[in-house]
Amino acid sequence: MQTNENAAMPAVGTMVLDKRRDRVGEVMQTTPSRVFLRAFGGGREWIASLEDLEPVGVAEELRARVATVNAAQRWRP
Q: 2, 20, 41, 47: which could form a disulfide with 7 (CB 3.0–4.6 Å)?
């Protein structure tokens, strides 16, 4: 994401990196100054500032999706 006032707001459903928390999250909702994120596959939402976000590459998005699937497999009986 850009760090100026004209920064593009990420679209709902896209994956972004919250650089402040070093977490990849899916955009759930946006406001003019904040973005609501949730880990792919569910979990508790968190709020990030637009300037703390950057788009993720294919590798980072795939890594987040695989981690979610692996975590779900561990909880199966």
A: 2
Those residues with Cβ within 8 angstroms of residue 42's Cβ, 6 or more apart along the chain or in another chain: none
Pairing of strands 34-38, 23-30: antiparallel
Count of residues making up the chain: 77
Q: Token pair 């596959």 is at which residue?
A: 41
Closest CA to 39 of 65, 76, 12, 60: 65
> What pTM was computed for the model?
0.72
Distance CA 9, CA 53 (A): 10
- pLDDT tens digits, residue range 11-21? 999 999 999 99
